[in-house]
Structures are given as structure tokens and as C-alpha cells.
Amino acid sequence: MSPPLLFLSGTELGFGGELLLDGVDVTVERRARICLVGRNGSGKSTLLKIAAGLVEADAGQRFVQPGVTLRYLPQEPDLRKFSSVRAYVESGLEPDDQNHRIESVLQSLRIEANADPQKISGGERRRAALAKVLAPEPDILLLDEPTNHLDLPAIEWLESELIKSRSAIVLISHDRRFLETLSHAVIWLDRGRARHLNSSFHGFESWRDVIIEQEEVQLQKLDRSINSENHWLHRGVTARRKRNMGRLRALQRMRHDRQNQRQQIGSVKIKVSKIKRSATRMLEVINISKNYGEKLIVDNFSMRIRRGARIGIVGPNGAGKTTLMRMLVGELEPDGGIVEIGPNVQMATLEQTRLTLKPEVTLRDALTGGNGDSVTIGGEQRHVIGYMKDFLFVPEQANTPVSALSGGERGRLMLARALARPANLLVLDEPTNDLDLETLDLLQEFLANYDGTVILVSHDRDFLDRVATSVILAEGQGKWVKYAGGFSDMLSQSNYNAKAVALLKPENRLQKSKNAGEPKRKVAKLSYKDKRALETLPEAITEMEFKISQLETVIADQDLYARDPNGFATTSEQLAAAQRELSQAEDEWLRIESLREDLRNSE
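RESULT FIELD:
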């Protein structure tokens, strides 16, 4: 068995009070696929930073095998020191790395290599950071919310890249479909501890629920034992208590254990302020169109939305999803066509950018609008502290400025604000951003049972499957088509997997515009050196693999480090060098084989 590429042992970290991480162990084997899950604030991002060597734990051990390359994707990348996106991406390469992948990765993620990092959007910065960690093809990829700000084609491209990747991967994501596709193991951070499941995320939730049920049963047993012993203590005579000090000490231990039992964090409680019921026909648009300059965003789109519908809008970034949604609800005037809004329609909006959350405003004022200490929910006055608790905020956070909140907390705050407004039409632009899986569960359940109408933009396929009753898909050239059902239903009805994917896939869209009108390029012939390499490389790769197997057998000896530290270090270095040599040989063989395939196709 080969040694792990990276391990954390007994990791502890606290910021006062209870430990955020309490004796956490993580082992990353070669080509591992691990997803890290847990509630917002459970320490997932912090643990990933410790693994990356960016944060030092209070206690515990971190080991990275010598020669192993590691790349970390942060949630908020910093490009300020770089003159171009290319310079930023190249900064992630090792001296012996080749930069041939930079162009293809940037093209697939639809980022201009020469763009000024100071002038690109937050989503583009995020995609540039992805390019930086993917281009070197490191031994370990640590990815914190890699699908944030990616559209569906880019998410699907990233999935395929990671499936093919030789890198070991540890990732944090709220995208269930993404986790189910990629993961082979799950680490669940829960109240400071790490629980390990050696299977994909697909089985995580049922496994988690069993553990929670078992804990509840144990707590009930402990409570009954304490009550029983308390009864014995209070009715027993003094002499009996003196003769049973062991039993008394056991009771004190039970009380201590119960007092220090870290409870499951509560669940978000989602309610919405209701108003007078709307008419059956909520909205109707007839032949609406919209252009921005020469770009056609919406071309003669018509649709009727009835009360109780839950409409999902999907498509690549830049297709005009938010524009279409704003026209549907009357927030944006179309260039042509008619928008009719039914009587008694009142909206509550959750916008994607979170820009309406001013950094200096406190959590209390963000919910109350700065008017007192109460909010009106469902026609009833509620104290803001109680409403905060429904969304997992503690009373001490009432005067915390928005700037001090985490991404997940800002997401919950925006959701709390949107749902506090009286509405029978919810307009949600990327509502799943930064929400943990448990909050997503409750939001999905709430929306599925909501008796009003919902229009939402989302790239979360699982969320759309669970919530949407119909999906509007961008099919290019301003054409939008409505399909019944969720995302999977849309796939089965449309040409999304064929014609639409060819249009929407980022690499195809960019290449199509780039090569429009260009003559077909002639593929260069194989050189004598390439032909010779095709003959000799397979045998050389086999020999390299055998050498690596021998070195792995030596270093797998658990007593080697204690017996011969210098020998362990030398063998580790030899193993790392052999693995790099194998990787280079495999890349060269793939390059030549791809060239030969191109030659065949061009004939």
C-alpha cells in the first residue's frame, strides 16, 4: 500500500469557547475523491486552508509527501498583483511545468488571457482562479466551492475535467449533483469532529440521519439514567450516600457528560409573510424582445404563468437569464411586446449579487430596515432576535455588521430579508449560493409546498429537479423555450444534450466565434522523433510504473521512518522524481497520440 500524499492528524483549532476543530484526522491517498460537508460555520474552509498550509492549527500534525504538488482554490481569489489573467494563471505553475494547458483551460472557462484583472467581474476572477489550479495538473487539488459563479455548461465541463484528472481531490460544494458525480468518500464535520464515510455522497444523507437518530437515543438514555440516579440520591439516607461514593461519582460524570454534550445545530425555520391571494393568472408576456446593442437577448418570447407555478430559468452566463426574469416580473421594460401582471401580485426578490446588503449595516437593521426591533411575519409582529434564530443567527450577532458575516451567513440573511416581505410571488436569482446542504433542504421543501408562485434563476441541477414545475432554457440567438418539469425532464425533452450542448458548451461557443469563416487548418505530420516515441514510450512507461511500485513498497513500511529517517527521505524523493517522470511520459504519449488522431480525421 502506497503512503498517503497528505495527512492531518489530531487537528485542533479554536477561536475562544468550544473548539471549531477537535481532533480531526484527514488522509488523502493518490487519486482520492473526497467531499467535505457540514453546516455553515462548521470549519470546512478552515480545515481546507490547514490542509493547504495556509492556516496553522493549534495542535496536531500535518504531513505532505516530499515532492507532492498541491493547489488550493479559495472562495475569494486575489488577482490585484497581476498585470493580466495569464500572468495570474502562470503564477500557479512550477518551474518544470509546461504552460500548454493554460490556453485550453482559459478558453474552456471563457476568460480572455490578456484581460486586466482589475476590470473583470467577480465570476471571471473565480474562473481565473480555477484555471490557475487546474492548469498545472497537481497531485492534490483542494477546491472550496468550485461551482460558485459557474453556469451549467462550465459546471459540466469542470465535472468532466475532474473525472479525467489524475489529481487527488478534496472539495467543498453545496451542489449535490456535483458531489454525487465526483466523490468516492465523505468527511462530515459535525460539532468539531470529523466523521468518515467510505462511499460517495449519494449515501451520505441517509447515513447522517442514522447517526443523528442514534445520538438522540443515547441522549434519551443518558437523561433517564441521570433522572433515576437523582431520584436515588434525594431519597437515600446520608449513610447510604456515604457508602455509595462510587455511584455518586458516576452520577457526577453523567451530569458532566450531559452538560458538555455538543448539541446538533438547529434547523432554519422558513416562513413567508402572506398577503391576499392573487388571481389564477399571475403573469403573461406576449412576443417580448430585448436587445443590448447588436446582441439579441430575447426574441419574441411568449408565456403565461399561473398561480402556484415554480419556473426555473437556465442557460450559460451572458445568455440573459436575469434580464428575462426582470422582464417577466415587470422590473425591466422590453424593447417590444406586452407584459401583463395580474391583480394582487406582490413580489419579494432575492438578487444574486447581494449588493443591497451594505457592509456597514448591522444584521438587526438589515432585517428591520432600521425601524425598531420587530419584523412582521405572516401578519404577526415578531421580535427580530427570534426571527434571527429561525435562520441560525445567535442574539450576540444582532449588532454585527454585514461585512463581518461569512458568505453562508450573508446568504441566509438575504433569504431572511426576502421571505420577511409580504408576497405571493418570489423572484429568486441564484438562491442556492453559499447555503449549506441542510438549509438548501429546507428551502427546497418550503418552495415545493409554497402556495404562491416562484420564478428562479439557478445553475443547481438537483435544486431545479426538486423545485421547478417547468424550466425555461436559453437555446441561443435570443430563443428561449419552456419545458415541463425539472432540469432532468428538460434534458429528456430538449436537444440540450445534442444541439443545445454544442451551442452552450463554453469551449464550443468560444471556438465557433473564433474560427468563424476560417479555412480548415492543415494538421502537421508526425516527425521521426514522434514516431519513434510512439514505439518506445509504452515500454518505458511500463518500466517506470514497475519502479514506482517497488519504491511504494519500500516506503509503505510503517517502521521505515523510525528505523531510517534518511532512507525514508531519500526513497520519498526518488518516488516523487519517478512519479514526475511518469507523468511527463504519459503527457508526451497523449500529445503524440492526439496528433496522430487529428491526422487521421483530417484525411
